[in-house]
Write a sequence for this structure.
């Protein structure tokens, strides 16, 4: 049987790790409130930062924040690379850590920013994606099943994107009350939650009305505020919109 004196160091280490994780979670909570209230960051940004910081906290394993230095962060970046994160994801996580430590320094929790000297991975340049004339015609001329809410939704999504030129992320954030069918405009919340009014063409408005009329027959979707819903009644995601566009381009 182990002696009490042999167990004590292990118990102390476990206690210190729990304390380190508790304090780290408090710092993360303070930082996310700062993003929401002072920086007016989007829900998407705040959610991503929470996920990134939670992953970093798991890597620390309860290590006290005062022990975080340049070398430890280099090990963390090497860890991300070893588990197959691409350069863009690593760059985003590094940007998150820079902002996090800058906030902790500003509020006096740290004296220096350990991430200040880290260089961002060089990203491969991506060419912007555009539809040519034939692809655009194929997308807008897609056949529609007027008895199927999903088919009407896809048509409304495509017509609204074409009519307004808004971002996919802005489109999926729309609620029914954002669309003024009489005035022919929609209220869009962009980056930093800034609102702007965008004109909407008659064809897009008719497509949206058809979709909403059909959707009302489904009890699961009847009283949902989001403009575009998935099959489970939740808000349509950006990834789902891209799948809709890809499906139409490929003629499936």
């Amino acid at each position: 049987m182990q002696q009490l004196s042999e167990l004590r160091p292990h118990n102390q280490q476990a206690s210190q790790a729990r304390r380190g994780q508790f304090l780290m979670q408090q710092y993360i909570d303070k930082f996310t409130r700062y993003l929401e209230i002072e920086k007016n960051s989007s829900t998407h940004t705040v959610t991503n930062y929470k996920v990134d910081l939670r992953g970093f906290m798991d890597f620390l394993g309860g290590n006290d924040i005062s022990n975080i230095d340049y070398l430890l962060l280099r090990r963390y970046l090497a860890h991300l690379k070893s588990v197959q994160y691409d350069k863009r994801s690593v760059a985003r996580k590094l940007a998150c850590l820079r902002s996090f430590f800058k906030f902790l320094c500003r509020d006096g929790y740290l004296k220096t920013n350990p991430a200040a000297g880290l260089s961002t991975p060089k990203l491969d340049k991506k060419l912007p994606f555009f539809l040519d004339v034939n692809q655009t015609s194929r997308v807008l001329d897609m056949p529609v099943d007027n008895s199927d809410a999903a088919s009407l939704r896809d048509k409304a999504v495509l017509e609204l994107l074409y009519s307004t030129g808004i971002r996919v992320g802005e489109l999926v954030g729309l609620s029914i009350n954002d669309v003024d069918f009489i005035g022919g405009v929609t209220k869009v919340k962009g980056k930093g939650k800034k609102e702007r009014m965008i004109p909407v063409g008659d064809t897009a408005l008719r497509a949206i009305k058809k979709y909403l009329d059909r959707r009302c027959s489904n009890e699961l979707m009847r009283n949902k505020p989001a403009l575009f819903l998935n099959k489970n009644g939740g808000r349509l995601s950006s990834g789902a919109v891209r799948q809709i566009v890809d499906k139409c381009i490929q003629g499936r």
Observations:
- The mean pLDDT is 82.
- DSSP finds nine helices and three strands in the chain.
- The CA atoms of residues 17 and 157 lie 49 Å apart.
